User: What shape does this take?
Amino acid sequence: MKKSRFKNILIGFAFSPNLKANVFEAIRLAASLEGSLYFLHVGDRTSFKEKTFNEILNESPISPKKIHTLWELGNPVEVIIKQCVKNNINLLLLGALQRENMVKFYLGSIARKITRNSPCSVLLLIKPSIDYIAAQHMVVNAFKSPYTENTITAAFEFAKALEILKITLVEEISRSKVAETAEDDKGLRLVTQRKKEIQQEEHSRVKEIIGRIPDNFKINKTITSQSIFGARGYSIGHYAKIVRADLLVINAENKRSSFWARVFPKDLEHILSELPTNVLIIQPENK
Amino acid sequence: MSGFSSFKSSINEIPNNLFSGFVVSLVALPLALGLAIASEAPPISGLIAAIVGGVVCSFLGGSQLTITGPGNGLVIVLLASITSLGDGDLYQGYLYTLAAIILSGILLFLFGVFRLGALSEFFPSSALQGMLAAIGIGILAKQLHVMLGVSSINGSPLELLAKVPWSIKLLFSSPSFSVVLSAGLGVVSLFILIFYSRLRSPFFQFIPAPMWVVIVAIGLSYYFELFLGFTAPFEKSLLISFPENLWSNFPSPDFSIAYSMPFIASVLSITLIASIESLLSIKAVDKLDPKKRRSNVNKDLRALGLATALSGMIGGLNVVTVIARSSVNVNNGGTNRSSNIAHALFLLAFLLLFQDQIQRIALPALAAILVYTGYKLAAPANFLRILKIGKEQLVIFGITVLITLTNGLIMGISCGVLATFLIHAIINKNLFLFTRNFLKPNVLMYLEEESGNYYVSVKNFCSFLNFYKLKKKLDEIPESEHAIIDFSMCEFVDHTVMEGLNEYRRSFARKGGVFELIGLDSHSAETQHPFAIRKSMPDLDFFNLTNNLTKRQLSLQKLAKILNWNYASDLSTDIKDLERFDYFKTKIINYRYNELISKEENFRFFDLSYSEGAFIAKDDVFVSFLLIDLSYSIPQFILDRETFLSNINAKSTYKDINFSKFPDFSRRFFLGGKDSGSIRSLFDSELIFFFESHAYFRVESIGKGLLIKNKSRLSSVQEIKSLFAFATELMSLLNKKYL
Assistant: This one.
């Protein structure tokens, strides 16, 4: 088995007040995942910028091992995506502020565009911090999809690397699967009954997935699962916020370029428009 | 319950429902006639609506206890439609309006098909109240004149109100005999309605107040004709007239102006009011249902739509669900839809058998019923109640009332909605909160796997604009479960939502569940108070009794001191232990106060405010109770004074248990319960002698609790003492048996 699925990690940086926090987070993460770290700046390479950046690197308490710094010119979205492909990047880090409007203020819609089109997994950090804050609780999506098992496995791997102890698997179930309405007592009984059945099905499905996950990832972990009937993407974000999760792990969306997909925002958009916490978006492996 | 056994039990309940249907028809007859006349439609059109509605809705409806027929709220829209569409020609206006009614029925049916039963939830509560108050004022303004014997006055509601002194003056300036007689009948009728609920005699209460008015009116007419020899004591214009032949000459609806704006506006306002009135009534009746069933509002809307269209085709008014008649139905032991059809068939029978008598009813008597109805809708108490919730609510309410009265219903309710939205934006100093989040989902509900509780979290804001989203989730929680509603991520919660949540709290309490609100204590402005929910319970603020104790309260305090008990005069809305008693099955408990609690906390005496019925049939009653907690379990039973009504009233759920050994006790007391065998073994000669030798108290056991009531009013201090003596002696008897 390979060492880690997150071998190559890339972070795009800009000279914002958050630079130091972003860099420190990236170094810590790369150290935990034992991967090599690529810093990418899209813009002019000036000696002042270089100096500032190196100073920050030197301040870091953890001395980074394999570091590459890239300076490129061009359209940020295109450049970042191109560099990801070129350097075989497995994980892309993006800093964000908690409100969507604020994200726009710093990065424009750039972060969003990159997230949507990224060829690799993406980690969105809402509150990058200079000091280390241990993550404790991870929420992972577990809805029925061919990509989910890969995501859950990746999440467990990530949890092991970052020593996150509590993992909650959330099965989002479309309300339309219930196919009954609670308009009167009979309807309510049917709805409750049907929900119970679906919940049990989902639980046993998730249990099977957990069973297939290598045992060494599961040591010392508290694993729970929770089913939620509601809008996919929205529900898990809201849930992560309620339980004060430190990390939310979700599937990357399978691309749908149809007209309707643009008109009606899908799962991912709910989360991007209101980041509940740090979000890790897992791209399917064989892509 | 399986299909067959429910069918069987509904067969068994037919006598009860026939009876309650009969009582309802006594109320419905005068109301149907009065509402039709107030709308300037032929009197028979109201009866057609009630008969068609009763038949159609009992077969196709989705609720069990509701009564359908012509509605109060619609009077104003129908009146406007009939008078304006016909350009002064009332009959032509009526024909156009029939077309509008048919179309509104079809619209209503479609609302039901597309499951728009949540429609009424898009209106802010205060705006809705304002609209209802305006409707009340509208009815009141016109009918006051008719009640005083002046039938020929027209104008807008405000003009009509201004003309009331003129009508009174007319009465005194030209006192012709028939005018004085009419006005006298009207005023006497109004008095009957006002003082009816004060007289709690079962014989008098057997016939509903509106029917007494009709009886007085018909009786008066016969008295003058047969004994005093008058040929026509009342003017022709002040009497009801039916068409010569009931079975032919059905009016034909006139669709010729169907594309004109005023016609379309009529259709829309009729549909709007019909759906709002029906939906509010259905919800209100569900709260009265002793069997705690949940009505299918969309199914009801479909049935009402169909009934309305049919009724319109043969000359009848709109069919809506009506709260007053429905609550009369509940109070008289109605248990299922058969009481609605029974009420319709009784009405049909009245129409066929008593045509001549009905045509003797003078309009002032019916007008008095409508004045009373209008007053109930627009009572100053409503204004005060809304002021207590918040000044901003009174602003919304006031704007809606004024604009509805001057510019019509659609305009009024629209301005009310707009005003509410603007006030919310101003209170929050933030319009984005609403615009940015309006369309986003904001509610998450899930069943917590560890605790088995339903957890509901609400984000951003929750107001009348998106309450339906929250309701949709809440409706999927069985009311017997534990639900936790968390508002800590929600920045703003409005009055409509708080009021709505209070309804949920009640229905959870009724069905044995728990409904908790959390996360509201950190809220700003409106909901800063730790007991933010108090805001939605205006009654609490309303009676600020703590400062000045009344004489009775002072003596209660003294009594507590003598007994070494605790006394608390303040209001409490903690009622969940009471909902379990049979006595409160068809009652809505408001709050309890003046509580005396024994040292061991097993005796609790308190005064309780509860409501029976709803709307014009609503009575707020204050009664004293003693609640005893038992440390052991005894059989569940109800012991009450035996009256001639005890067989047909609510007690009929249980059979009277009689003892051949104690004929005197069996004759004087009604005793019933689920398990008659264990009750018989509990009631031995000692206990029976005890009950026989004491004054009458109503005693109800729910196993681990006893509820004792003296009379259906507050007890005097002397009565409280004898109640305590009775209870102590009863407890020592029971302790001897069980300890």
Notes: The radius of gyration of chain A is 20 Å. Chain A touches chain B at residues 181-185, 187-189, 191-192, 195, 199, 224-231, 234-235, 238-239, 241-242, 270, 273-274 (CB under 8 Å). The first helix of chain A runs from residue 19 to 33. Confidence is low (pLDDT under 50) at residues 100-108 of chain A.
